[in-house]
Amino acid sequence: WDMEQANTYLGELINCLHLAEKHKAGFFVCLSSTEVYPPQNPEALPLAGCKVSDVLQPESVKGLLCMQGENLAREFCRIRKLELSIVRYADLGGYGLAAQKNDVISSIAHQLNLLPEVTVNTRQTYHLLSLGDAVDALVRVLNSGRPGIYNVSSQRTTPAIELCATIKAILGSSTVLVRESGSPSNYAADSTAIKRELEWVELRPFEEQ
Description:
Blueprint: H1 3-22, E1 27-33, H2 61-80, E2 83-89, H3 104-114, E3 117-121, E4 124-126, H4 131-144, E5 148-152, E6 158-159, H5 160-171, E7 176-180, E8 185-186, H6 192-198
Parallel strand pairs: 1-2, 2-5, 3-7, 4-8
Antiparallel strand pairs: 4-6
């Protein structure tokens, strides 16, 4: 995330919290990211991450901001006596190659359309979640009214180099993909809690977007 996205996220979160108080809502849902967890090696097991006591160690700008957002929402809801649920999403599969959004697919497509060369971390792995499944998870949390922390992540993994190569082929891009063995970047999070408590099931492959 850049500074504009950061300011937008925190500003909109604050506005939503005040609206919840103004309209006397008894329940608030804070949308966050699995990047609040430390990045792991691609072969690592998913982090459980469904307790307030979990140690969060974000290393990305997005992860740091989401952790700040969670803390802000938690304190606001404690003071205003609102029930709070935190939903931590993994990577969204995308709105489509032509969309002007900041999701994984759109961002990669944008780079491949503009740049002659794109460096890809061969140690980066995505857990791409379809928008339909992401929305379904949010609706279930809203309808339940249950406070808690829920990870929402795909169990399917897609290496970054494979995803970039696929998008490049679809676009017919001439951009050169440069492989680089960077730091581990794999935010595997266990979605057991939302599956068990709210009967959420991943149904739609992100490729259908």
